[in-house]
Amino acid sequence: MNAGIAAALYSIKMNRHIPHSGGALANELGLTIETDLIVVEPSFNGRQVSTTGWSMALQMTLQMAWQMTWHMCAAPFSRISAKLWAAAFMTMVGVAGAHAEQIGDAAIAENEVTGSNPARGIAVGSDVFRDETVRTGKDSDAKLVLKDDTNISLGPLSNVVLDRFVYSGNGTAKAVAVNFSKGAFRFMTGSSPKNAYTLTTPVATLGVRGTILDIHVLQGRTVVTLVEGAAHICTRSGRSCVDLILPGQTVVVTAASAQLATTSRFTFLEGCGQSVSGGLCGPTLYASLPGAADIAALCGR
After folding, report:
1. Helix (H/G/I), strand (E/B), else coil: 238
2. What's the Cα-to-Cα distance from 116 to each of 100, 159, 163, 257, 280, rounded to whole Å?
3. What's the predicted TM-score (pTM) here?
4. For the segment 235-270, what is each residue's pLDDT rounded down to a tens digit?
5. Distance (Å, rounded) from C-alpha 247 to C-alpha 232?
6. Which end of the chain is more exposed for a tag (fewer CB within 10 A), N or C?
């Protein structure tokens, strides 16, 4: 599929109309696609259908599939090949499935807390989504609770990326991938199996076993202190690793090595008492969050 065709089918810039190079295909399909959210206006047998918003994505896809099928029956394949129709349909399905997936909520959000998917301020009770970066500003903190009861507390000036979350129901996840990219954190595993977690920083990977960790991500190094459970901490290359088995043990990781610290130790505790909401360092259940109880009940929690 060339760039013009792709642009005709999926324009992701606000108020950008279909470019001239893709107009022929758009006219052939009888579609106009604009954005902000998504606006699809198919014209089928003189009937115009408008579907707006991510929540109507499935309806949109079905309408487009029906229209495309009708065009295929009415027009000779010499004009648009079967392969091109298939590619166009898969592009439309991708558009419909591109909505954000809610994976948890904010239990604490004080002062400046923002999310990226979509860009917005986060308050107590706000949803958080897969493939989202959450940031805290100066004198700010937050606690995120995922659907499997994983707790992620952020201190001031911290960034965390919720890379992946595959919920399997009954309060567990098949995969939880989190990247701690900058700042201070307390991480508490939830009810998912230990091998479901993929935790990273710019220089380290963190393997967990029923674990609470305090994590400090600095330029070029990461400091990890075991609070509870056990952890296997390695460089991103995997060539240097340290096992933390005793509460209070601390490892300092750089790109080149992971070494037990004898004097340097990081603890998130100093930020816990500063939270006006309280509970920044203690475990919070997803089902106990405002608005989450009904969702949790549906999942057998």
Report:
1. coil
2. 11, 11, 12, 32, 22
3. 0.67
4. 999 999 999 999 999 999 999 999 999 887 889 987
5. 13
6. N
